[in-house]
# Entry
Amino acid sequence: MKIIKTKHQAKDQLLKYKNVGKSIGLVPTMGALHEGHLNLVEKSKYHSDVTVVSIFVNPTQFNNLADLEKYPRTVEEDLKLLESKGVDYVFLPDVEEMYPQEAKLKMDFGDLETILEGALRPGHFNGVGIVVSKLFHIINPDYAYFGQKDLQQVAIIRQMVNDLSFGVELVVVPTVREADGLAMSSRNRRLNPADRKNALVLYESMVFAKNELLAGRTWFELKDKIQHKFNQLDGVKLEYFELVETDTLNIVVEQHITDFDQGKKYSLCTAAFVGDVRLIDNLPI
Ligand code: PAF
# Structure
């Protein structure tokens, strides 16, 4: 496994594969790797001739300095894991390499970012769009692998890839969960034992809502019950719990499952603070 730290080294090392028609798979990460990331790596190893994992905690996507500072950084551990999975290259740039100058470009994703995460984390998707564009330019991947857990991020990146004609195919991989259902996330390692227990409320509420909806309960009735479940837990604050059309992320206001458009896919999306850790999750219906 080779470590690449600069754009120049990336061109130098990776162009040779492109020139002989080998495909490059990119798994973009911010490190603190877990099974979810390793699952993306596995998919890339299966589909692509060469697998590159990037590790970069991107400052421009944090709208809160404390969150950026507290973001777990475990590079040595990450590198060992990636080596054991047979990754070919790790792109490990520093902030100066990625941002030699302050990015002034602003990406506006319209109605895709005025809801859910975008509504609560102003500027977040601008930062994601900028860094992912940079990674696509630097690595020039044929395939890029993203987790379904970040449903809105996937929608935004898909829009960006189409709007800017990036020649990369996005591969979206289902969320990997702990045995009890908690979605794997780098942030989970910051949960204390009590919060780790409480964090299950995200998944359990979505499973409850899905089952109730399928059993014919109205969305209006359910939303109140869900809010109540979150309110009962100490130190847990629900930020949103929404039902969306999976492809467009349009928020669904229909009250009853029989009103749903049979030709469309739907997902539940939620975010909550558990202690001072902000978690997100989603579940297809
Ligand atoms: O999903 C993430 O870890 C990040 O948002 C990404 C895609 C690596 C961009 O920094």
About this structure: Residues 28-30, 58, 61, 128, 131-132, 150, 153 surround pantoate (CB under 6 Å). The chain is about 40% helix and 20% strand. Residues 190 and 277 are 7 Å apart (CA to CA). The chain has a mean pLDDT of 96.
